[in-house]
Amino acid sequence: MGLDNVKHIVLILSGKGGVGKSSVTTQLALSLSLAGRSVGILDIDLTGPSIPRLLGIENAKIKQAPGGWLPVQVHPSQLLSPLIDLSQLKAEETPLGEGGKDYPPPGTDRADPASRPLRPVGALYAISLGLLLPSRSSAVVWRGPKKTAMVRQFLTDVLWPPLDYLLIDTPPGTSDEHISLAETLLQQTSTPSPQASSQLAGAVVVTTPQAVAVSDVRKELSFCRKVGIGVLGVVENMSGYVCECCGKESNLFGKGGGEVMAREFEVIFLGGVPVDGQWGSLVEEGKRPRYGEDVVKDVVKDDGDDDDDDEDDDDDTVNRNDTAENNVSAGMDVGLLVDKYRSCSLCVTFEGITSQLIGLVESGHALGS
Asked: Is residue 151 classed as helix, strand or coil in its secondary structure?
């Protein structure tokens, strides 16, 4: 069965380690899901599988079924309630009750629900060698032939449900896993039928702005041309940093190297992705991203914990309001990753990238093949 239920296969590649391929893969999957597409992630980074941790499914296990493996469901297809802005909730004129009971629960709105339509979200599935290991710290010490066999097994023995997109997260470089992946995919999708010929949509190549990274990623573009895989576009990750408190942007690693490389190889530049600390808090701690005054308040509160004995609590009303706000914030942290991701600044960035990607894939347009 293997890839029979998959409409479009997109590879996430880079010739350089540490550029954030897994982060880009995860956010592309979440963004495609928010666009109503059903998505699967196949993690073939065998020695450094990061996808289970990023998706919060490290405790899940792959199940065996007749004919193959069943991927782990991250979330089903569903309708999400309109996104709630915590600052708007705090600005409500309705007084706070103790414990914040006068606030609506997360995912609801004081206005008529009919005025704010629900958002359809596609299902998301994933499979990774990390789900077969005893723990996060378990090392995979395999030679090339065993890696090759594992990649081919992932491509042929996973029983995917009907998917619009399968994103394949790859390790850095152009070695055994990549050769095995390319050969198997090209073999499975090189049939006379139009559906099969368009199944392998192409590759998204990830780089960072530094010259040393761009130099290595150029090799990945050359690899795609040599093996006959089209390039859908280039994403420049870590392209600037926006301060969560003041909003000032600085270019920690430079900017524009990926765009220059895309022009040089005559492929599409899909966009730059800045560094956002709130994205890290979301995937590591499950916290819904918060910006501006909320972030400043948290920093001030943490800095003042050591000398809180010097001041008296002289205003019970303020204390009740602080408690209520904390309860609302805690309530906003409950829910699915895809729901909380909507509050991340990078969600808007990836909406633009995903929109381009959908247009390119569903029109059958990939350069360099």
From this structure: helix
Q: What is the mean pLDDT of the chain?
A: 82
Angle between helices 277-285 and 21-34 (to 10 degrees): 80
Assess contact for 39 and 167: CB atoms under 8 A: yes
Determine the Cα–Cα distance for residues 211 and 254; give it in Å rounded to an integer: 9
Residue found under tokens 């289970």: 52
User: What gap in Å lies between CA 18 and CA 201, rounded to an integer?
Assistant: 25
User: Which tokens go with 95?
Assistant: 């007084």
What does the alpha-carbon distance between residue 85 and residue 328 come to, in Å, rounded to a whole number?
11
pLDDT, tens digit (0-9, with 9 covering 90-100), for 240-253: 887 877 767 788 88
Integer distance in angstroms from the first to the last C-alpha of the chain? 26
Sign of the alpha-carbon dihedral angle for 271, 204, 354, 49: negative
Regarding pTM above 0.70, the answer is yes
The predicted-structure confidence for 298-341, as pLDDT tens digits, reads as follows 544 554 555 555 555 555 544 544 544 454 455 567 889 999 99
